[in-house]
Amino acid sequence: MICIVAAVVAVVSYIGSGALYRGIGKGAFHLDSDDARPAPKPQTAASRAEAEAEIRQMVEAKSDRRVARGQAPLDVEAEIAALTKPAETVHDAALRDEVRQLVIARNERRARQGKEPLDVETEIDRQLRDLGA
Q: What's the whole-model pTM score?
């Protein structure tokens, strides 16, 4: 008799648990939800604003940690300006010369193929920019 009651209770609890188990991992912090705000497209004003807001939060947190340790706070605006300024594009003369030789060799191949030669200086600048140098 007890076995039959236990079996009925087990079946009922198993049937009712399907929705419960499907809900595991769901909720406000679920990463695959459809209501998540999409990230802004790269190189747009929205993405730059979001990046600057995150940089500001990190610098302010760094400053707060310094204050908590008894150190002087950071100048947040100066730190942000230093972190967000564009990188200077100073190229090594040897690298520029090597790229120039490659561009000249490419122009010679293009001439043999009957194609228009590339502007050497423009192509050097493009190559260095693409290399991130």
A: 0.43
